[in-house]
Amino acid sequence: MRLPELRIGPLIAKIPIIQGGMSVRVSTSELAVPVAECGGIGTIGGSGIPVEELQEDICKAKKATKGVIAVNIMYAMRDFHNLVMGSIKAGADMIITGAGFSRDIFKIGKEHNIPIVSIVSSLSFAKLAEKLGAAAVVVEAAEAGGHLGTMTPLRELFPSIRKMISKIPLIAAGGITNGYEMGEMMDQYGADGVQLASRFVLSEECSVSQKFKESYLQAGKDDIVLVSSPVGMPGRAIRNPFVDKMLAHDESIVSRKCRFQCLRKCDRKYCISERLLASRDGDVENGLVFSGANAFKMKEILPVREIFDRFVKAAESVYKERTQESELATVTSNAG
Predict the structure, then answer these.
(1) What is the pTM of this model?
(2) d(Cα 105, Cα 5) in Å, to the nearest integer?
(3) Domains of the chain and any CATH numbers
(4) What's the pLDDT tens digit per position in 99-139?
């Protein structure tokens, strides 16, 4: 059955896929535009870059597509407010935020008439986001890449939140690598859509280095590990010499001087901006390569259009239109 549109505030995505906003300079307009052109929500990673650079990329994206362009900004960033306001001024359609929780962001959203989407990993924050005025909530579970807010798997976490959140769209995120899983989350768990990040790293349009993509292609299940982030949250990344040093508490990686000043709070165990930029530009031995837990399952680099076509075809093969009664029954069953 045909997949439903994803409506977030006044915005409509013809295909219920949000492309995850990966920083630093992993999700740029080069990726967000083709995602938006395919009918999804294209997201620019707005953390860890100067406001002016972010604004230029947003303007570039808005000129290139009439689709929905969002900006993902981590609350953990020191210049969070400036990045948000700069994004709004540049014409972003939507702000997506996680890695911490901001109450003030919802006031900004109302003042500037822009939808705010919260990434949460618990029922309490999902309920708070809905109460404060979130236009949608992304439920990000343990299988996600980058910074993690929970160790609970998606299929355990999502039902309890779905049961309590019904007035706004609820998006499933974490470890989804194909359309069958997308269809499962929408059909059996009641998700209104999905957020995909790692799958889009392995797209032709993603502007990371070829070596970054090869790290994904070559990774086995056991190569994807939990790491400590100076943000104060655990993260998930592909094991490499730098990660080995991190896990061994090697003092040589400690950040003695901070040239980025990017985080509100930083334990300086290493410079995360420096390491993310290194991997993005091809130094995958000394950089940090964030990835989802199931990235090892993906073995092809595809055009964004092909990714969409495959996801939609597979998801539609298992998705059935849901009535309110069937959705409540399924959620209750999954929660039990």
Answers:
(1) 0.91
(2) 26
(3) 6-206+299-335 (3.20.20.70), 210-296 (no CATH)
(4) 888 899 999 999 999 999 999 999 999 999 999 999 999 99
